[in-house]
Design brief:
Elements (H helix, E strand, L loop, with lengths): L2 E10 L2 E11 L4 E5 L6 H8 L7 E6 L2 E2 L4 H6 L1 E4 L11 H11 L4 H14 L15 H13 L5 E5 L7 H16 L3 E5 L3 H4 L5 E6 L2 E7 L3 H4 L9
Parallel strand pairs: 3-8, 3-9, 6-7, 7-8
Antiparallel strand pairs: 1-2, 1-4, 4-5, 9-10
Helix pairs in contact: 3-5, 4-5
The structure holds adenosine-5'-triphosphate (ATP).
Length: 232
């Protein structure tokens, strides 16, 4: 499922943050969206998931134009936000049931997946707890479990590694690799590039709302020296 952003300009109300942004995330690959604070990464994601309307440009997922077929388009996407969003009155089990209903999942298959993921993230004994009472990292894990029980073809993950313990980071990377092998496409933003560099196929570097560089991950240090950590 390839994602195409073509000449996207957009932002908030009168404020134009993104200027003529174009990039493609090819089928079954992982693209890292990088840039300094305020460069427009989350704004790009907000456009892709349909929270913001473009002032100009097109966003398509395979042949589905976001503006023309919003429901078909959004059904293909799993989004993990930077700040976990949990419902105050729902237990962990109810959060998972809600995801299954929203994505029209086969409950038996989805619960088998959920059980495995809950064990992986050490949440298996917390099904009747309210995630609002969880730690930040635990709430993040709830978001990951909710996303990975779906059959979404495109995963969008905003800053996945901050706040997760080292075991959870490795488990998440393994899940990403596994789905990638099944043809799932990933777009993720991160400031922790060294964690993702072996798993990413390409990067898009945003600077002041514009694409300043893009290319293969292996060319990152050459193309974006200003974001490369000097270990000398
Ligand atoms: N809700 C909003 N209303 C108005 N302006 C916003 C809003 N959210 C972000 N902005 C502005 O848009 C610009 C880009 O912000 P954005 O959150 O996309 O950056 P980012 O690259 O995700 O940054 P970070 O690495 O800090 O998460 C900033 O100038 C910011 O002030």
């Amino acid at each position: 499922m390839s994602l195409k952003i073509k000449n996207l300009s957009g932002g908030y109300g009168q404020l134009t943050v993104l200027k003529d942004v174009s990039f493609t995330v090819p089928d079954g690959t992982l693209t890292a969206l990088v840039g300094l604070n305020g460069s427009g990464k989350s704004t790009t994601i907000n456009h892709i998931i349909g929270l913001l309307n473009p002032k100009q440009g097109d966003i398509t997922l395979n042949d589905y134009l976001l503006t023309q077929k919003p429901i078909t388009y959004k059904a293909q996407i799993a989004y993990i936000p930077e700040q976990p969003v949990v419902y105050e009155e729902l237990t962990l089990k109810e959060h998972l049931s809600l995801t299954m209903a929203a994505y029209h999942l086969d409950e038996k298959v989805a619960w088998q997946r959920a059980d495995k993921l809950l064990k992986m993230f050490r949440l298996e004994d917390k099904l009747n707890w309210f995630p609002t009472h969880f730690s930040k990292g635990m709430r993040q894990k709830v978001m990951i479990v909710m996303a990975f029980i779906t059959d979404a073809k495109l995963f969008i993950i905003d800053e996945p590694f901050l706040g997760l313990d080292v075991i959870a980071v490795n488990d998440l990377l393994a899940l990403i690799d596994e789905r990638k092998q099944q043809g799932v496409t990933f777009l993720l933003t991160t400031h922790v590039l060294h964690t993702i560099e072996k798993h990413a196929d390409q990067f898009v570097y945003l600077k002041d709302g514009q694409v300043a560089a893009q290319g293969a991950m292996t060319d990152f240090a050459t193309l974006v020296p200003e974001l490369t950590v000097d270990e000398g």
